[in-house]
Amino acid sequence: MNLWEYMNDEFFVTLAVLAMLSWGEISASAESIPSRLTTVDVYVALQAAEAKANQIGVPMGITVTDAHGDVRGFIKMDGTFVHAQDTSFSKAYTAVSLRQPTGTLPLAVANELRAITQGRLTNLKGGVPITINGIIIGGVGGGGGVGNEDEVVAQAGAEAVMKKKNR
């Protein structure tokens, strides 16, 4: 099956819905961003996520991205699987790109997004956006455990930054 055969009406409807969802966030964030992801925030996220991974006893790769999906920080804990760098990045990138935690999309939508982004977007659990005053400033992705473990580690990193920023 070539790409044009794969693209059907459902594909274009999905793409249009995602574009509309994104447009509101883009225009809102362009008005005035009360905060941005700083280098200190990246360290805070990585340290909190690493502490949570140590607490649950699962070594992980942890990625922090900015609001554009660019990597701002990464740590690969001792004993982490080789693929953890790729999976943690994909999860953080997807969380900021779709403006929601990963692992929540219907299977058909997830498969289409994965195909059109050459695997960059994922529906695996473990990606969490960092949100300040309703604006996404970054994302945290964890990879190396099972989905719920990755999710709790990423959540710890995101929550640490949100707590710091909301003081």
User: Would you identify the regions where 5 or more consecutive residues have pLDDT less than 50?
Assistant: 23-34
Largest sheet descriptor:
4 strands, antiparallel
Helix content: 40-55%
CATH superfamily: Haem-degrading domain
Just give the CATH class: Alpha Beta
> What percentage of amino acids are in beta strands?
15-25%
Helices, by number, come to 6
Ends apart, CA distance between termini: 53 Å
Architecture per CATH nomenclature, i.e. the level-2 architecture: 2-Layer Sandwich
Radius of gyration: 16 Å
Question: What's the number of domains?
Answer: 1
List the strand order in the largest sheet. 2-1-4-3
- Which sequence of SSEs, written as H and E, runs from N to C? HHHEEHHEEH
- Number of separate strands: 4
Topology-level CATH name: Beta-Lactamase
Q: Overall 3D geometry?
A: globular
**Average pLDDT metric:** 86
Structural class: alpha+beta
A few lines on this structure:
With 167 residues, the chain is α+β, with helices and mostly antiparallel strands. It has six helices and four strands.
